[in-house]
Amino acid sequence: MSLEHILLGYLQKPATGYDLGREFADGAAHFWHAERSQIYPALKKLQRHGWLECREEPSERGPARKVYEITEAGRAELRDWLAAGPHIGRERLGYIAQTFFLDALGDLDETTRIVEAMRARWRATLAVLDAGRAEVMAATGGAEPEDLELFHRYAALRMGLHQLRAKLAWCDETLAILDRRTARASSDTPEV
Amino acid sequence: MSLEHILLGYLQKPATGYDLGREFADGAAHFWHAERSQIYPALKKLQRHGWLECREEPSERGPARKVYEITEAGRAELRDWLAAGPHIGRERLGYIAQTFFLDALGDLDETTRIVEAMRARWRATLAVLDAGRAEVMAATGGAEPEDLELFHRYAALRMGLHQLRAKLAWCDETLAILDRRTARASSDTPEV
DNA sequence: AACCTCATGTAACGCGTTACATGATTGG
DNA sequence: CCAATCATGTAACGCGTTACATGAGGTT
Predict the structure, then answer these.
(1) Nearest CA to CA, how far is B81 from chain A (Å)?
(2) Which residue of A has its CA nearest to B174?
């Protein structure tokens, strides 16, 4: 159900399916993803519900743009979804599953290698989110954004940052434990 | 692809589909979930691949138990999956999406209410994970587990704890910002 | 008698991914 | 001329959810 409501959320400003596809590649990337092949049918479904209206506009290049706009019923539906309490679903986290079973490799060096790879990936993602944060900070001069829309978008970004920093903290903690363990193991069986 | 590999991971010790269903309700709940209706066909598929073997055993109550056991090919497949680098997929986080669009409610009191509800939910989950951590701590006497299997299961649990604490830290941070904002707003427009 | 736990499944549906189709314009 | 960007989609497939079916044995 969430994708549809995210589309309604974005469509408080009129947009085309193509535009929305870009949002999922940019602004929303850290909490949701959708391909355009999924977006186009979803928009039609929202229109059938009466939550969106559509007008066609010629485009300079390519086929006519279908610009969607939210209706009053759509706004009500969005508000219901937002006010209905937190939408916390079950998270499927392959990397924790992997950690959970990593003993099957029977080798703590392999564990170290995998955790280091995780750290590298998340550091790269953190750099992207941090750039977004720096942008907001520059625009507001270091204060919390006054504007309600920006305030909430920034709050969502802060959540992403907290989560990423927690992942990285776990990597550091785990690597430290692994380090201590390898150090201890090599002092137990010292080289000749 | 992950569910199948998680099943292989668990099946380093023989188990039935029913047993595995319980794991997803208990031990694996914080990073993966699967219904038994999904597990039974998945086990058959793994068997077709030659990664599992199955023997039937009579059960004291109910129909015969199908006890699955991993094969050498299955172990190789699991090791490949584990060693292939971190399995970091796209996360779909409805609650961040919700935060992102919460300005549509046009009311910071509603935002406060939602964030408080999130905090309550995550506090409850944290209590569960923390109990698991306390159990391990009690068993090892406060040290990191020596046993390789326990070490990795505990590492996975620590990750869950880090993530939850990050969520809660965000709630606290956000509620503090909201508080300051409401305080400022009421001093700008003081009651008569 | 009603209900819980053990133990197996099937069927229908919905959400998400990948691949493909079409076609105009702009830039190298 | 080739590639990228704009702009719309469809089709096939796979993963996940919900609901249902069956039936034995033990508990209240």
Answers:
(1) 8
(2) A155
